[in-house]
Design brief:
single chain, about 15% strand, elongated
Length: about 325
Amino acid sequence: MNNLDTFFDSFVLRLSENYPRDSKLYLYADYFELVSLFNKDTVITVSEMLDRLKDEGMIKRNTDIENQAEQNDKDEIFVREVFNLLKQRSQSFSNDYPFACFDESLSFIDTLYAKQKIYIFLLLASNLNLFKDYQSVITTEFEIISKKALESYLPKFAEVKNFGKNSEFTGSACEKVRKLADCMNLTVDEKYLGSVSSKGTQDLGLDIVAWLPMEDNIGNFISVFAQCACGKEWNKKLNETRRYNNFLKLYLSKITHSLFIPYSLINYNDSVFYEHHEFGEAILLFERKRILSLIEDGNIFNNLDSNSLIEKCIAFKEDIV
């Protein structure tokens, strides 16, 4: 990976101007982890993160002393809620978690093994705005890791293939769909596919495809069509693969639509996903915990270009609290 030294010479860890305020607890938990990762003192505390959020303007200072006291209490409660979520992550991810979390502090474990590095990678992939120079590498390799997770989730005889970047399916978008149909022993609905430009080469929202083949030629089997999304607006990707309901003709069965995201989306208090109101129609979600738990061999990460970025992140330290 090129120019890492130059990139980190000017690297500054700050919240985006568009960062959601007083909501999306899981995003703030990610930010606290990044602060701990890059902090030269390693440990961050409730009081330090309160000060940091105030300095960055995410917590507003009030000139009204009486109202400010009340607001300070609310702000501290919010930061403690973030630390509580971090503690829950620590318990859930167990040995895969690269941080040590206590009631009022979070510290980075600077000697990591393979799956802890993958956790850091997923953390960076959830914050692409901070690593724009390496966005293409990160998103491409997120698809690789997602494919490995799906392979682990499905039976060994399942066919699992990349359909996005670095795919065996080449040519125009229409040609890719037809090649996929041949591979799956399905037919194409040319009426719907005909509305797609014959010159376009996009993947039409499909990054990974998997199916459990039968020994006959009947197009009736379990299939999973997945989109991989790293951006903060991942919810806009939820319906990307549903167009394949019309492109391909499955017989007496339905496609299982899936979304892979690098975010840690589990709300441990309620045993649901954060923002589950966004999902609408049925979808199979793979978020950070699910992906990491399905990776059987963390050493696969050693062969990816992002490994050098992670090593540089671990080595980079700055007085940022």
